[in-house]
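Risk register update: the risk of archive-format incompatibility is retired. Evidence:
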Amino acid sequence: MTSKILAKKLIDTVIYYGECVDGFCSAFIVWMYMKEKYGLEKAKQIDYIPFYYDKLPTIENSDKLDSRFVENFRNRNILICNFSLKYNQLIQLIDVANELEVLNHHKINVMNLSPISDEMRSGVEITWNYLFPQRELPTFLTYIRDKNIRTGKIPDADKFIAYFCEKKFSFEELEIYLLDEKITEIVQLRNILIDRQPYLLHKFDNKFICVGYNNNPEFQSDIGIQMLKDSWFLDFVVMYYQDIYKNVTFYNLRSDDNRMNVFTIAQLFGGNGHRNISNMFRKGLQSILWDTYPDLGIFELLQHRRIGEIIVTDKNKIPYTHFIVKEIKEDWIKSDYFEFIKRKVKDSFFIIFEMKTNNFKFNEIDNVLLYYNKYVVYINQECQINEMYKFFIAPQKQTYNEYEYQTNEILKLFFASQNEALIEFESEKDFVTIISSIFSKKIDFDQEDFQGDFFDD
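Archived output:
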């Protein structure tokens, strides 16, 4: 095998990663270079081919590419941008290609090939520096770079990427984003893409789970990451697309270390992958994985939760979740739905629903009316007991059994049956104050210690 170094002007084929904005924009840079250097017609004559890791035609029980597929690249001058072929696959292309060059930010080790690779740079940056070494990376490509290698240096990068992923751009349409004012305009928009994603309630293992869906064949990796980031309550996300010619629906499942294992989901449908990234397909033009249940507004409720802490001592804090609602829907408190809410806020010991009321009292000292809100407070049994144990045992040197018994005795005085209390306070601050005082008291108390103006008669 001889070394094949690609002359830029001879490029006639660009292979890029089709599921990533970084890959598509790398191909755009090649188009832009060819247009500037040799004219629009030359740029259009090049074949820009997206590659997908799970869709390459391979020989059964081998990682080698199907020879019929490889023949499509015979005598071509190939530039590979931001895509990592396996060793044997790359060797196959090198053998049939006229000239070949690889630009990638992942490590490559192939004899007689001198790839341009750098794990500290994104695909667009490597491609830009290769073709425009004397020019700075345009602003919109710095957003792509920041997102791809996760530097976090550009606060609004996620907003731009979300908008970008929503559209299907041609290279000609993409040119307008070389203007900085266009970037500013997009950044000012809300994240349209994620706001429109459907969240569906399913049952898995006899429990409710929340799954986000997106029907898009492009940029699935970026969309999945963005959906997980913007919707903390999702158990996992599903990107899918339907091949009407093959009558097949392909699925890309995404999760993270704090959510469900999507590998186990994919296995149920004959798929494969890893804990946080898996793929599968189903015959027919389908979308959702299971039967759905009405969400009853719970998703909107979770999107607007507030998180607070009750400070008992400098080291001991009690976390709680606070929802402000017009009313508490009866169905929310039904076992399956409420268990779902509790699991989603399992980092909180208390769940508080605050509702506006018309109740008030007159403060004679300040000569003002003080309006009370109604607080319905629940203990969250799903809260990880180890977290609560460390809050209270350490300072009192109690055993676990003593802690559990004494904590329950305190709570019995404060809460009515079924771990629920209906209380009216002047403010959330009052609730925090009384809870703090309860957990600060010694165990040898009397119920009269907890009676006062805060409680309803």
